[in-house]
Amino acid sequence: MNETIKAIFDRRSIRNFKPDRLTDEQIETLIQVALASPSGMDLQPWLFHFITNQDKMNRISEGVLDAFRKAGNQELLDRMAARHPSIFYGAPLLVVISMSQDNLSGVDAGIAIENLAIAAQSMGLGSCIIGMAAAGFNGDEGDELARLIEMPADHAFVISIAIGYPAMSKKAHARNRDKIKIVD
Ligand SMILES: Cc1cc2nc3c(=O)[nH]c(=O)nc-3n(C[C@H](O)[C@H](O)[C@H](O)COP(=O)(O)O)c2cc1C
Q1: Would you say the CB of residue 88 lies under 6 angstroms from ligand 1?
Q2: Is the CB of 130 under 6 A from ligand 1?
Q3: Tens digit of pLDDT for each residue in 67-117?
Q4: Does the beta carbon of 167 lie inside 6 Å of ligand 1?
Q5: In a mutational test of the pocket of ligand 1, which residue from 77, 107, 111, 130 has the highest number of ligand atoms less than 8 Å from its CB?
Q6: Confidence check: pLDDT of 1 > 90
Q7: DSSP H stretches of helix in the chain
Q8: Is any ligand 1 atom within 6 A of the Cβ of residue 128?
Q9: For residue 142, which of 55, 59, 107, 148 sits 20 to 30 Å off, Cα-Cα?
Q10: Domains plus CATH for the chain?
């Protein structure tokens, strides 16, 4: 098995990170990985926000949990509380992808976020793609959260990924062969 395929198979959603910070070199590699991502017509419609400030991450996490509280989403709040106080699971790095609301491509963002996940795995790091942060950026506190990460006024949150050293391990998710249709 080659190393790329091994990284794809070994990746897991990590929901508890060690507090160890990443080196500037590791972060620069991940910046280059983000920039190497393909995009439709090479439009590169994204802004990658590389966030290492824990206070800012905690503020975003609180904004998301506030939005769940306001929505009365107790089931989700209970699930998150059982996992970790932060929706970013204590990761030392959070990468948010924002895009102009006029040119919002979830496909481009998804490809870039998986590039980061596989690269992180290959670097001995773990990651968790975090979509639920949308609840914060789209909620009452959204403007404040957007300002916090220097998101342009016409941009919207698309997806994010928490990256760091795993403090847990877990089994691979079920591989459902019935999700494959071989077409002769
Ligand atoms: C678009 C997307 C959004 C996700 N959002 C979250 C999230 O907000 N919080 C979380 O803990 N996991 C999130 N995940 C991780 C999934 O729950 C995870 O990929 C799935 O359970 C399979 O587990 P695995 O990644 O370990 O294979 C997200 C994954 C994707 C692809």
Answers
A1: no
A2: yes
A3: 999 999 999 999 999 999 999 999 999 999 999 999 899 999 999 999 999
A4: no
A5: 130
A6: no
A7: 3-10, 24-35, 54-70, 74-83, 106-122, 134-137, 142-148
A8: yes
A9: 107
A10: 3-179 (3.40.109.10)
